[in-house]
Amino acid sequence: MDLEVSTDILMQDGDIVASTETQGQQSVSSTEMSFKAEPNDNEYAKAGPEPSRKLLGSPLKGGGLKRDTGMADWQPKSNQAIPRPPKFPPLPYASSQTGLVYDVRMRFHVETVSIEDDIHPEDPRRIHAIFESFVDAGLAWKKNTSGPSNDYYMGRIDARKVTKEEVCLVHTEEHWNWIQGLSAVPMEDLEELEQHPGTKMDSVYLSNMTPYCAALSAGGAIEACRAIMLGKVKNVFAVIRPPGHHAEREDAKGFCFFDNVSIATKVCQREFGERCRKILILDWDVHHGNGIQQANYDDPNVLYISLHLHERGRFYPEHSYRDRRGPYGDHLHCGDGAGLGRNVNIPWSKKGMGDADYVYAFQQVVMPIAIEFDPDLVIVAAGFDAAKGDMLGGCMVTPAGYAHMTHMLMSLAQGRVAVCLEGGYNLDSIARSATAVARTLMGEPPERLQELHPSITAVDDVKLVVRQQSRFWSSLYPKDISARLAGSLHGERMHDVVRRWQATTLWDEYEMSSLFVYKEQLSKSFENQVLATPNYTEARPLLVILHDPPEMIASPDPRTGKVELHNTWLTDIVKTYIDWAVKHDFAVIDVNLPTHVSDAEDNQIHQPEDSMEYRTREATQLLTYLWDNYIELNEATHVFLMGTNTGHGAIINFIKNNEERAQEQLTTAISFVKDVPLQSCRSATNDQFAQWYHASSLVFVEEDHNFFWLGDLTRKPKKRFGKVQKSPAGTISEMLIEHKEAVFNLLTAETADWRAARPHDEDEEMATARMPPVSNFAPSPRPGALPPLNPISMPPVGTFLSSNGTTARSLRGGSPLPPIGNFAPSPKPRSSRSPAR
Ligand SMILES: [Zn+2]
What is the pLDDT of residue 75? Predict the structure, then answer.
């Protein structure tokens, strides 16, 4: 919108100012009277076309209503057959009108000092842009212009000032007084107040007209809802400002002063009693409506559903009510007391949500819940800042998207839908979006949607809400299992159980035990994270495997969805590699990279995976730690690093951060890459680095991996990506199976020199001593050989279980001692490299 318009902000459409001002004075009272004179809206349904006729003389503006559906004016031509009068009266809903609240005086709230190229987003032109768009679309009629071009337009409803009593249904008396006081504060003091807001306000600008406009805005919302409940209109669009959904009980916040929608809610509940007991407030503003949530949090009769950008608490409003509790627009805030389960937050974790995402949320959460709640009135807190083109929101909802949401909501509460404007700061976007909503309210079907596929993020976000809300709504499945686990069941996360079991097995079969790793955070997931064979310090090849947790495959019960242990398989292909390596006299260090680190204060049943970036960073730190404290100090003749997914990232990061050390000591880096980007090794200072990496690597990449589609398929991958091999296998496990021979061959070939140089008898001796049992039922123990006689296998000495080696030693009697991480290897000088390399 150009700046020319803004110079005339206050006095645009002067005719409307005049008409509103003059008519407004009278019609406030006449509205009150005429609406109150007809408290029973049931007669509406009985009387058929009656309400329309009545509206002709009603205070509705926009020329009142033109749709007199009677036949009185109809004159048949003489040679025509006289048509029969309609058998039934016109449909009450279809023939009744959509209301419009718009009052130009709400534009008087402006910044005291406006800087031309830094106009505040909550710009008075917002409501004007919407109104003009309605007029241009032929939906609203501007008085004293050309007159209505057809008989299809919105009936004007006058805004009025809200009363103190009404405001105090939601806000404190102090808040009311504070706002009223602003009209008398000198300009300089208002500026001063804006500069130093204290706790009373946040992100608002003030003017002497603020109390007036805020009062009209709230009064407009009230009259919009009353007009519906009184049967004056079927539904309504209130083009009001300043917005309201951030205003808290005692504070002005986020451009908002009075919580318009909540005030209208409470007024309607009070005035219409049982007929308007249950109200659904649907808030599609891109921001969370903290004010509405606070005002209705314990009210069982107000269902508040908000779809908003949350960014895990980083998007406005990040802070809580006055006491600044944590971000409260998350999916865990479900209401309190009698209102528990009547607060539904659908927080988007990322920007960029579009039509398909919103429609998906409506289909999966909003509509099932709303239908079950069965409201008497629907109020939409309609911000249009999730609209495509709004820079503040960064989302992509189109006018058609808003129309579809409106259309779905119109199936509720017998169509009683009051749309009240909240945010939305791109004048063009809000005008187009609001017009699409208004057209839908009037009966036009929504335009077809262009975007039909919800994003993965949206699906994840919505599923999280479904899980959370499933305990309150019988239409939502699957049910949350927290309640069961919170009781006496004492559940434990399976990945910790599995890793403990792995540790036990690896101890039983290969005497692998835990290496101490220093961590600041305590977690079960770090116990047994690093397991090593007892010979890992010796002069022999060392294979370090950094892998994801084993896969669990289940065939759930088709009806209940329950996962039963007997229908669940654990696939741990990594063990095949360990087994091969141990049999071929390698030392092995096995590193488990948990996809989620179990928290001691684990009160959330479902946890998403930790992010790939976070996991890779953690894995890199861990590998560096292992290298510094264990690998570099030992006598290993060859060092092989093998990593799957996150492990691949960690290996490359390590190599890049330790160019020299890696080139000196690392024999080969083996990677299996599927769900992560393929990393490359390049050095700004060393031209040979990429060459070296290519010669010292083997990289299996899933054939559907982006890498192959982004690059030029006709050419070989660049050397810095390593010796890349395309893998036809679909999962990491399948890749590990598919390529195990290739890896074994490589390990054999690379260590051939060492094998050849080794004295034969040592070889023999080692083979006997190290032979692991083939399976649980396998070899009868030989004297002096493994496994230990004690049939009950003891767990390896956990990292945190034992802080002193003697405890562990006595547990296993005379059997060989596993090295206990921190106490084990005495540092050795770095120079002792094997000549065999
Ligand atoms: Zn907003």
Answer: 54
**Alpha helix stretches (DSSP H) within 80-156:** 125-136
Q: What one-letter code names the amino acid at 279? A: I
Class of the domain covering 3-68+91-115+122-469: alpha beta
What residue spans in the chain does CATH classification 3.40.50 cover? Answer: 494-823
Catalytic residue numbers read 246
Every domain of the chain with CATH number 3.40.800.20 lies at: 3-68+91-115+122-469
d(CA 674, CA 702): 5
Neighbours of ion ligand 1 (CB under 5 A): 285, 287, 383, 385, 423
Q: How far is the CA of 311 from the centre of ligand 1 (A)?
A: 14
Residue 318 CA to ligand 1 center (angstroms) comes to 13
Q: Name beta bridge partners: 98.
A: 235
Gyration radius from the chain CA atoms: 36
**CA 610 vs CA 313, 339, 593, 597, 599: distances in Å:** 17, 33, 11, 8, 12
Which positions ≥6 away from 21 have C-beta within 8 Å? 105
Q: In angstroms, rounded to a whole number, what is the distance separating the alpha carbons of residues 679 and 651?
A: 10
pLDDT mean over 272-299: 97
Distances (CA, A) of 145 to 126, 133, 363: 22, 15, 43
Confidence band of 279 (pLDDT split at 50, 70, 90): very high
What pLDDT shows up at residue 531? 95
Q: Please say whether the beta carbons of 414 and 451 come within 8 A.
A: no
Name the architecture of domain 494-823.
Answer: 3-Layer(aba) Sandwich (3.40)
Q: How many CB atoms lie within 10 A of CB 203?
A: 14
Q: Which of 717, 547, 554 is nearest to 648 (CA)?
A: 547
Cβ–Cβ < 8 Å for 434, 395: no
- The token pair that represents 210 in the structure block: 């603020």
